[in-house]
Design goal:
The protein has 697 residues and is of the alpha+beta class. Helix content is 36%, strand content 20%. The chain binds 2-(butylsulfanyl)adenosine.
């Protein structure tokens, strides 16, 4: 839609318009519209904001102001009339029952006092009671429940139309698939909320992206909205999304009233939703009687923002009383009865002095920017990963640049951009090495990868990093064999490679500084104990590319001895849950290499466990954990959605069609092609409704 050249031009145009008007109002308006449309597209379609919220707001306000002053220049397609943007075409587009508006922003006590004054004017009253909730930094969604069943989940899109992402929404465990709404006289309800991602899940997610040679996402919000648009619901399930539901936009009741009896306030509605099992912010919400209390709370809360598991970028203040809300109404852009109080962005500027290139366990070379120490949100930042060459080029950062650094919550700091207006002309381009900084082998970059790699399997840094990973807590868990000891032992020639861990010359260690009898005994014992670790930990510890802890469990549960993988091909691997071609190829390659087979053989000789006695699913968090189901035909004993909920609650998952990955097909009356296909495959268990009920009991 936009070329790179367009994007650069529009970005600069936006920056210019923030502080300057053009020679005519006409031209300024045209250019403002152009940059706002572009910013909307970046934000909603690409999930990659081009501008800071405050900048976007300022441009929007400016356009509105100019259009009001020059009504003859107003047009129906101006973003001020409706934020119209192209939607991604992968999901069907659906209309929202009620337009999804955004919120007006405030930044300080004065803005809040002003807003309160306007509220009181509109409502025609004295003090107003306000509810205050965290402003969750995620992707907004609309959920529709018909007769108590979740029937639709949609993204915000342009506010009028969103994308139907029901299949993905159904994978989010926090969102109930059904609720006892009918009992409350509610036929239909549309609930608004935010899809969020835990800060630690986000970090792990970015690590994975970088490992796959992709650029990391800037913040949890982008990760949440990106995940909602993944085409494979099973993949969505793995991403650990969460949800907070904070608003009911409309009800259809059995008895013509417009809200269920007794729900006269926002506060009560949130408690009501919570009581029905929805993830509403009942515990996080506060009720105040006066704006001064709200302001005090806002300041106080800002100091604790990191205590939440999710990223919050502010607080939302809402008029509590619905009668008052109705009286105040809304503009075309936002409700008058709610406002966002935005926290200060945790950003700072610093100077980029040099770039170091670090070698990772898999040989990937990571550029790390060394900056002048700078304090952001309570920590001092001196080193920032630049991830890979593409990130460096995209951001166009140079040595000597003044850079804008941001730390979102507990998330690792990153460079937002260089401040190009501060350049003196002395800045130097960041040059990528052609040879490994550790072993001097020539670096390679594969076509579909962002990382340059050292492919020397004996590269000393990689060897050390692999051993550190092998001994780490989530792998073989050899306590006291941490980074420092591995490094020291390696340098002294005591620890040449992974199997060498089980063959250390203890006589030499005993004489070393810092290794008393006790620490040697402890270390020996930890190494000895690690021999009994279950197979999944060993597989994870071997450091096969793209094989994380979950995949390692899947792999381990599929064999009774690790060497069985020597005969597995990609077809066989891809029958396992969650293993696609990329992971499959990496696993096949790993086990095909002679040096890896030798490592495994030496581990076996040393007494390390290579077997899985309990071949079969290793996740035991639900009776149906790891099992896949599909329902077909007309079911008479239960509703399909209820049965699916039962399966999911017991840890199983629902597949979209019959394939080799399917474990159970539950058939009702008049089952057709799915049943035929399952019979033909011969690997699917075919169940009647009765048999299914017995199984889940
Ligand atoms: S109320 C008409 N409450 O912030 C109701 N919004 O910047 C409007 N958001 O579009 C929404 N946390 O996606 C509301 N507690 C909260 C929120 C919240 C996050 C999002 C929402 C909205 C955006 C505006």
């Amino acid at each position: 839609m936009y070329t790179q050249h367009d994007e650069k031009r529009l970005y600069e145009q936006a920056k210019h318009l923030l502080h300057h008007d053009l020679e005519s109002a006409d031209r300024t308006i045209t250019q403002l519209r152009e940059v706002i449309l572009y910013a909307d597209w970046k934000y909603y379609v690409q999930s990659e904001p081009a501008l800071a919220d405050a900048e976007y707001d300022a441009l929007f306000k400016k356009l509105k102001h100019l259009e009001e002053k020059n009504p003859e220049l107003q047009t129906a397609d101006s973003p001020t009339q409706r934020v119209a943007i192209g939607l991604s075409e992968r999901f069907p587009t659906v209309s929202h029952l009620v337009p999804m508006l955004s919120l007006d922003n405030t930044y300080n006590a004065e803005d809040l006092t002003d807003w309160d004054r306007r509220c009181r004017e509109f409502a025609g009253t004295g003090d107003i009671a306000y509810c205050v909730e965290p402003k969750y930094d995620g992707a907004s969604i609309s959920l529709i429940y018909d007769d108590g069943q979740l029937t639709r989940g949609a993204t915000r899109g342009d506010g009028m139309m969103g994308e139907d992402v029901t299949a993905n929404i159904r994978q989010i465990k926090a969102i109930p698939l059904s609720a006892a709404l009918t009992k409350q006289g509610v036929k239909q309800i549309e609930i608004r909320g935010e899809i969020v991602i835990h800060k630690n899940v986000f970090e792990a997610f970015n690590k994975q992206r970088v490992a796959e040679g992709l650029s990391p996402l800037a913040n949890p919000r982008n990760a949440a909205s990106g995940t909602l648009r993944i085409l494979d619901p099973n993949e969505v399930k793995k991403r650990g999304l969460n949800a907070i539901l904070y608003h009911v936009s409309t009800y259809t009741l059995a008895a013509g009233k417009d809200r269920p009896a007794g729900l006269a306030t926002h506060y009560d509605t949130i408690q009501w939703l919570y009581g029905l099992g929805f993830p509403a912010p009942a515990k996080e919400m506060k009720l105040f009687k006066h704006i001064d209390e709200v302001i005090t709370y806002c300041h106080e809360f800002e100091g604790h923002r990191d205590d939440l598991a999710f990223e919050v970028d502010g607080l939302v203040i809402k008029v509590n009383d619905f009668a008052m809300q109705d009286k105040m109404g809304m503009t075309s852009h936002h409700p008058r009865w709610a406002v966002a109080y935005k926290f200060k962005a945790r950003q700072a500027t610093s100077k980029l002095r040099r770039v170091e290139f670090q070698v990772g366990r898999t040989g990937a070379i990571t550029p790390v920017a060394k900056i002048d120490p700078v304090h952001i949100g309570g920590v001092t930042v001196t080193s920032i990963s630049l991830f890979n060459e593409d990130v460096v080029r995209e951001k166009d950062v140079r040595i000597g640049d003044t850079v804008l650094v941001e730390r979102a919550g507990d998330v690792i700091p990153y460079i937002v951009k260089p401040l190009t207006e501060m350049r003196t002309g002395e800045e130097e381009e960041i040059k990528f090495p052609t040879h490994c900084p550790a072993c001097n082998s020539e670096l390679e970059r594969q076509q579909d990868e962002a990382a340059w790699r050292c492919i020397n399997i004996n590269c000393p840094v990689q060897v050390v990093e692999r051993m550190i990973h092998f001994a780490s807590k989530d792998a073989m868990d050899i306590r006291s064999l941490g980074t420092a000891n591995v490094q020291k032992f390696y340098e002294l020639g005591l620890l040449p490679d992974i199997p060498g861990i089980y063959n250390i010359d203890w006589d030499r260690v005993k004489g070393m500084e810092g290794f008393g009898e006790k620490s040697v005994t402890n270390l020996k014992q930890a190494i000895e104990q690690s021999k009994q670790q279950p197979l999944n930990r060993l597989i994870f510890g071997l450091g096969i590319r793209f094989v994380g802890e979950t995949t390692a469990k899947t792999l381990a549960s599929a064999v009774s001895h690790i060497t069985e993988f020597y005969d597995w091909d990609i077809e066989k691997l891809s029958l396992l849950e969650d293993i696609g071609p990329k992971v499959g190829t990496s696993v096949v390659d790993f086990f095909a290499r002679e040096e890896n087979r030798q490592i495994i053989a030496r581990l076996g000789e040393a007494g390390v466990n290579l077997a899985n006695e309990h071949k079969g699913p290793m996740h035991t968090d639900g009776a149906l954990a790891g099992k896949t189901f599909l329902f077909t035909g007309t079911l008479s004993q239960f509703k399909r959605s209820d049965a699916e909920t039962i399966v999911e609650n017991k840890g199983g998952s629902i597949l979209g069609g019959v394939s080799a990955k399917l474990n159970y097909l539950v058939v009702g009356a008049d089952a057709g092609s799915k049943l035929d296909k399952a019979k033909k495959l011969g690997t699917v268990n075919i169940l009647t409704e009765d048999e299914f009920l017995k199984l889940v009991e």
